[in-house]
Design goal:
- This protein is an all-beta fold.
- The chain has 2 helices and 28 strands.
- The strands form 7 sheets. Strands 13, 15, 20, 21, 22, 24, 25 and 28 form an 8-stranded antiparallel β-sheet that branches.
- β21 and β22 form a beta hairpin.
- The N terminus is likely disordered.
Length: 403
């Protein structure tokens, strides 16, 4: 089939027409498909899919045959500026030739799968590429610029995908989740990378409840880039709110840099750690504040019409207090983690076997890479729901030159 597309200039149509073939192509936003292998979790096999498409349907099935294309290694190295990548040795991709079918009347095939196995045998001091290309497509032409997919296989970092929460917010629906009710002991953790601590907004919320217990960056009385734990107790009888905070100049954060933040609470005793170092302490158990416990079990709402403040991630009070930047590894425990636990190997970036530890009451890794849902990897399964589709970013953490 050929498409006749008239050329439109101004308000008139020129009689000349250009003819375009109805070509077959790989339907993808990128032709570099990364498979990151979690070697620390003993992953030995992975799969990935390819879909093919064309601009207009045909009246017959179009069979699209893929083949391995090792001869394209140098083309990949030049195109992606990676002269160190190696060709994946034979035997690791199970499939040889693979056929996708665009059925008559359709413009897209069902996905076809490429399966890689024996990955534990690879030398992970190297990264690998496996090019596959469209060899034929019945009697259809093939769009040259979209006929090849490069599967790139490399060892995964501990954290590979994070969420950009700028202009977004998320919340758990844990109205009946008593594990977070009136907590006398807990630990809150997150990996944070702020991108706009110096913008007009003076507050960037990480998580918590406004006028209750909130971990945030900046306030009206402190620098915009300074970490703060803000505590509040509403006294309805006295018609007032008592407030308390833990913050100091040693908690100032740089933009575009990853930090691990941990806040522990022990019957009102607060400790704040940045990258494993104790930066500040406080006590909200006595005086006017009198908060030896914190109740996070509040029904979710928009907090309008007199409804109580509730728990958010990346937001508090109003849109001007959202977290502008990247979030990952957001966690809550029902106990106080020790300094040794906070600083244990790779703890900033991963919790091993999270479903086996009942004290881990929420574990939002922010690694899901699709949609609005943020999976809770703890044993309790209270997923976060984001207001908008999350913008997911590819990263490699820990950064090799992490300060």
């Amino acid at each position: 089939m050929f498409l006749l597309l008239p050329i439109v200039i101004g308000c008139g149509t020129v009689d000349h027409s250009h003819t375009f073939a109805n070509m077959v192509f790989i339907s993808a936003s990128s032709y570099q498909n990364e498979l990151r292998v979690q070697t620390d979790e003993n992953v030995t096999s992975m799969s990935s899919e390819i879909t093919v498409a064309m601009a207009e349907p045909e009246d017959k099935d179009v069979n699209v045959l893929f083949r391995p294309a090792p001869e394209l290694l140098e083309r990949y190295r030049l195109a992606y500026y990676d002269d160190q990548v190696q060709l994946l040795p034979d035997g690791y991709c199970v499939e040889g030739a693979v056929t996708a079918v665009i059925s008559a009347g359709n413009m897209q095939s069902m996905p076809v799968e490429f399966h890689f196995e024996g990955l534990d045998r690879l030398d992970w001091s190297k990264s690998y590429v496996w090019p596959v290309t469209i060899d034929s497509a019945s009697d259809m032409e093939i769009l040259e610029s979209a006929r090849t997919m490069y599967f790139v296989i490399k060892e995964a970092s501990l954290v590979n995908v994070v969420a950009d929460m700028s202009g977004n917010r998320a919340w758990p629906v844990w109205d009946d989740f008593t594990e977070v009710s009136n907590m006398q002991e807990f630990t809150m953790e997150a990996l944070v990378n702020g991108t706009a601590f110096n913008n007009e907004s003076s507050i960037h919320t990480i998580m918590g409840i406004e006028d209750c217990f909130l971990v945030r960056v900046g306030d009206s009385a402190i620098p915009k880039n300074q970490l703060q734990v803000a505590v509040g107790r509403i006294d309805k009888e006295a018609n007032t709110t008592y407030r308390y905070s833990v913050s100091n100049s040693s908690m100032q954060l740089k933009t575009d840099r990853w930090y691990h933040v941990a806040v522990t609470f022990d019957n009102g005793q607060i400790s704040v750690y940045v990258d494993g170092d104790l930066k500040g302490t406080g006590d909200c158990s006595g005086g006017e504040i009198q908060m030896p416990s914190v109740n996070f079990q509040v029904a979710h709402s928009e907090e309008d019409e007199g409804k109580p403040r509730c728990f958010w991630v990346g937001y508090s009070y109003d849109d001007d207090r959202s977290f502008d930047g990247l979030l990952s590894e957001v966690r809550m425990w029902n106990r106080v983690l020790s300094p040794e636990e906070i600083n244990s190997d790779n703890h900033f970036y991963k919790v091993a076997d999270p479903e086996q530890d009942e004290s881990l009451v929420a574990y939002w890794k922010f690694c899901d890479a699709q949609g609005k849902a943020v999976k809770d990897y703890s044993a309790y399964g209270n997923d976060l729901i984001a207001e908008k589709d999350i913008v997911w970013r590819t990263v490699e953490l820990p950064v090799k030159d992490y300060e």
